[in-house]
Amino acid sequence: MIDYFKEEKARTGVTNKEINQATGTQMASHWFTASQWQLPNAEQYQKLQALFTQKALEQDYDTLETEAGD
Questions:
Q1: 32: containing domain
Q2: pTM metric for this prediction
Q3: Considering its fold, how many domains does the chain have in total?
Q4: Nearest to 6 by CA among 37, 41, 51
């Protein structure tokens, strides 16, 4: 389970600070590292989903087009 959380965090580039701000907690290190790992509750997980969705595909199209042309 921890691998899922770690991989999604790495994939989206979400920071611990962003996670803590979005959830109103200081739990990022417990949710995204093996140290004292625990599953977020349903409300916290929904907030994480919203944050991670917001961060996914955040590059603007012009940047993508420029990189694709390289």
A1: 2-69
A2: 0.78
A3: 1
A4: 37
